[in-house]
From TrEMBL:
Lineage, top ranks: Eukaryota, Metazoa, Chordata, Craniata, Vertebrata
InterPro entries: Avidin, Avidin-like_sf, Avidin/str, Avidin/Streptavidin-rel
Protein name: Avidin
Record bears the keyword Disulfide bond: yes
Any single Pfam family the record assigns to this protein: Avidin
Subcellular location: Secreted
Subunit-structure text: Homotetramer.
Principal location: secreted
Length: 135
């Protein structure tokens, strides 16, 4: 699905709008990365769970890119200013799923930044090809 040479790729996503809180990083909102992909994360529920959507700008498939749903959870933000989180994107236009894990930071200029790593799993027709299914 998403092209990458290394097994894990570090992505930096920056908040599109200026932060409302320079002290605490808030995951909810619209984020854009340096490759032009964007995602929207909805409000967290009482358990720290969230849903949203991801629109990637890069793909390894010839299928037309479509907005894809995501769901995840954030560690208790009442105790931490720069929370850890994870989410899964179920790609609407391919037979693959990507899991992301990361942390929400506030940089020295008060800008919110997400630092993430991802792992993509593509469908394989048989176990012999399992070695090339994960990027």
């Amino acid at each position: 699905m998403v092209q990458a040479t290394p097994l894990l790729l570090v992505l930096s996503l920056a908040m599109v709008a200026p932060s409302l809180s320079a002290e605490k990083c808030v995951l909810t909102g619209r984020w854009t990365n340096d490759l032009g992909s964007n995602m929207t994360i909805g409000a967290l529920n009482g358990k720290g769970e969230f849903t949203g959507s991801y629109h990637t700008a890069v793909t390894a498939t010839t299928n037309e890119i479509q907005l894809s749903p995501l769901q995840g959870s954030q560690h208790d933000t009442n105790k931490k200013r720069q929370a850890t989180f994870g989410f899964t994107v179920n790609w609407s236009f391919s037979d693959s799923i990507t899991v992301f894990t990361g942390q929400c930071f506030v940089d020295k200029d008060g800008r919110e930044v997400l630092k993430t790593m991802w792992l993509l799993r593509s469908h394989m027709d048989n176990i012999r090809n399992d070695w090339k299914a994960t990027r």
